[in-house]
Amino acid sequence: MEHPQISCVEIGSPKAIELRRYALVDLIMRRYSAYFRPKTPEWFPTRKAAQVVAYFAIKAGGRINVLLCSKLVSLADRLSMERRDYSITGDNFVSMDFGPVASNTYDYMKGNASVRQGEWAEFVAPRDNYDLPLAKGVTTDILDELSRSDLKILAETWDKFSDIDKYELAEWTHQFCPEWRDPGRSSIPIEFPDLFKELGKEDPDELAQDLESERKLKLTLFTR
Questions:
Q1: Mean pLDDT taken over the chain
Q2: Do 93 and 183 belong together in one domain?
Q3: Integer distance in angstroms from the first to the last C-alpha of the chain?
Q4: Nearest to 43 by CA among 124, 151, 116
Q5: pLDDT of 59-77, one tens digit each?
Q6: I want to staple 123 with a disulfide (CB 3.0 to 4.6 A). Which of 54, 78, 161, 201 is the partner?
Q7: Is residue 57 a contact partner of residue 133, using CB atoms and an 8 Å limit?
Q8: Is residue 24 domain-shared with residue 42, that is, in the same domain?
Q9: Is-contact 190 128, C-beta < 8 A?
Q10: Helix ranges (DSSP H) in the chain
């Protein structure tokens, strides 16, 4: 099946080649996901991550492209870490071919998460080809996991990046997110100390340890 964006550009042009590259990576990841379902960690706040995606889908008119949404989520998380020393989704990050990605959130976007699917489905409907539709009846009024400061960062991210073509935004992250490393057609973990260092933090290792300590605390609460 031809990627829907490719037919809009001249065959053989640099833009068409780039679009085909992204389409190929997406196809590989989707087929790979059918055979391998990664384990979603217990500390991951599925419901909150779903509300972040739902927020962007609301802003987009009821559904949002998967690639664009994955970029907006990672950029919002990055801005949150720059300002508050923690992300909105609480996720891990990896370098993928199309830039930094919040990995567990992306697994849910693909329908490939291993647990708590009901929490996700409360806000985000199943993937429809390249789009993520909102679940029925979802409005910003019911996004109760998101604080005012969360919403402010999400709004700033939307206002700054939503008008950029999704493929151009992916290329933008290659240039302006220096924690990203080219993984080829695989993925490379982005370690928290490295990310905090690129954000100009004075104590990146200590900040990373704080995040890990918070996760351990959540695991302790889950197992009680």
A1: 88
A2: yes
A3: 49
A4: 116
A5: 999 999 999 999 999 999 9
A6: 54
A7: yes
A8: no
A9: no
A10: 14-35, 46-59, 66-84, 103-109, 117-121, 148-161, 166-176, 192-198, 204-222
Per-residue pLDDT tens digits for 173-203: 999 999 999 998 889 999 999 999 999 999 9
22-28 — which CB contacts under 8 Å span 24+ positions? 22/67, 22/97, 22/98, 22/167, 22/170, 25/96, 25/97, 25/98, 25/185, 26/66, 26/67, 26/130, 28/185
CA distances from 163 to 45, 64, 117, 130, 140 (A): 28, 12, 30, 18, 21
* Domain identity same for 11 and 87: no
Per-residue tokens: 110: 């693909």
Q: What is the pTM of this model?
A: 0.83
Q: Are residues 19 and 67 in the same domain?
A: no
Domain extent for 151: 38-190
Token pair listed for 9: 């550009």
Closest CA to 126 of 141, 113, 140: 113
pLDDT at 108 over 60: yes
The amino acid present at 82, given as its one-letter code, is E
- Asked if 127 and 118 count as a contact pair (C-beta separation under 8 A), the reply is no
Across the strands, what pairs with 131?
65, 128
DSSP letter string over 45-76?
-HHHHHHHHHHHHHHTTSEEEHHHHHHHHHHH
Q: Is residue 216 part of a domain?
A: no
Could you tell me if residue 215 is inside a domain? no
